[in-house]
Amino acid sequence: MKKIGFLAVLLACLATTAIAQFPNSIQAYFRYQHPGVKMEMIKHSDDGYVASFSKEGENGTAYFNEKGKWLRTEIDMNNSNVPESVKLGLENGKYNGCDIEEAKLIETPISKVYTVGVYGDNSGTNQYHYVYCTSSGNCWDK
After folding, report:
1. Torsion-angle region of residue 36: left (phi > 0), alpha (psi -120 to 50) or beta?
2. Per-residue model confidence as pLDDT tens digits over 40-53
């Protein structure tokens, strides 16, 4: 039993040490942009760093360059959290009556776009479509 406790403490220390080795700007990003969110994993990639996190039951991934500058964040959204403006944009366009199958928020330093996956459209096709929408409900596909 003591061995299990020791291993748990050792793993926690190693995880804390690993996170501490990444640029401070990554931790600052989460502190200011997503307060209270705990990073689940940070890993070094060919282009920089990738940090995984959970926020209010939704999973997200934040991307940073080699120096720790934030590039973009992608958050997989529950359908109930898709903004009404986006839902209205779909209803007022050619995707009226289509159910949202999946949704993701993609934020960059210069934009915020929702990608929404729906089946079908007003023409009666049963194809799967990825639709892009702004916060104001302006939607387009392709």
Report:
1. left
2. 888 888 889 999 99
Range 68-97 average pLDDT = 92
Write down the pTM of the prediction.
Answer: 0.77
Structure tokens at 90: 């779909």
- Count Cβ atoms below 10 Å from residue 27 Cβ, excluding itself: 16
Q: Class assignment of domain 24-140? A: alpha beta
Is residue 49 packed enough to be buried (19+ CB in 10 Å), middle (13-18) or exposed (0-12)?
buried
N-term to C-term CA, the chain: 57
| Cα–Cα distance, 79 to 72 (Å, whole number) | 21
Neighbours of 113 (CB within 10 A): 15
Determine the Cα–Cα distance for residues 125 and 63; give it in Å rounded to an integer: 36
CB 22 within 8 A of CB 42: yes
Structure tokens at 130: 């990825």
Tokens of 44: 């070094």
Q: Which of 138, 94, 93, 86 is nearest to 116 (CA)?
A: 86
Q: Which residue type occupies 52? A: S
- Residue with token string 């793993």: 11
